[in-house]
Specification:
Number of helices: 8
Structural class: alpha+beta
CATH class of the largest domain: Mainly Beta
Strand content: 15-25%
Number of strands: 9
Distance between the termini: 19 Å
Number of domains: 2
Length: 226
């Protein structure tokens, strides 16, 4: 689970029930959902969208929503002076929210930003908490989801603590290969704790090793935020 909270009226669509089949499929993977839970999610969830570059949550605000990403990619980041530090990156079929804000209702310390045009399924804090009360078995689902994201957080912590840039990037590829050519390199470099120039050199070096042909870099998707 990541970070979440800003809404604008023109980004919401509460008039028609959203298609939450992908939400149910994802949660059902962790623990079988009862029909009661499925019906509750269908009734209380709603669709929303954020254009690339918009904030879902701003540092210092209280998180009011939990989101499921149907389409698009988002990142968490913090500011240190003028420096922008990417703390996580994720995409489709992931849950994003501020764990601390949802638990103890404290202001979020991270920003959360859409780095592609995003289509999301949202659930309010109140409806999310009522889900635990009405369906105690959902606590099992949430525990398993949190375990998964704790493992992800552990992996991110390991990556940033490596001192060798090439090892950092290779581990990133092994865990987040599906994002490597989708996300702007400036965000990947920030996430890894290295400069953009260093990342470019590492990618070129690894490309030469894998292709055996000079001058053929790893493909880069231009014009996309990472």
């Amino acid at each position: 689970m990541r970070g979440a909270g800003l809404h604008r009226k023109n980004q919401l669509n509460k008039n028609s029930p959203p298609d939450i089949s992908s939400v149910i499929t994802t949660l059902d993977y962790f623990y079988p959902l009862s029909e009661g839970i499925k019906d509750y999610l269908k009734k209380h969830s709603y669709a929303c969208s954020f254009r690339k570059g918009k904030l879902l949550l701003k540092a210092g605000e209280i998180c009011e929503h939990i989101y499921f990403i149907k389409k698009g990619a988002v990142r968490g980041f913090i500011k240190e002076g003028k420096k922008d530090i990417t703390t996580w990156i994720t995409a489709e079929n992931e849950v994003v929210s501020s764990i601390s804000a949802l638990d103890v209702r404290e202001p979020a310390f991270e920003n959360m930003q859409a780095i592609e045009n995003c289509e999301l399924i949202a659930l309010t804090y109140t409806d999310f908490q009522n889900l635990y009360i009405k369906f105690p078995e959902f606590n099992i689902v949430a525990r398993k989801v949190l375990q998964k994201y704790y493992q992800d957080a552990e992996g991110r912590a390991f990556i940033v603590r490596l001192s060798n840039a090439e090892n950092k990037y290779q581990l990133f590829i092994s865990r987040y290969g599906h994002l490597a050519n989708r996300i702007p390199l400036k965000y990947i470099a920030s996430f890894l704790g290295i400069t953009l120039e260093t990342l470019s050199r590492v990618r070129k070096k690894l490309s030469l090793k894998s292709n055996g042909t000079p001058g053929i870099p790893i493909p880069i998707v231009r014009g996309r935020n990472l």
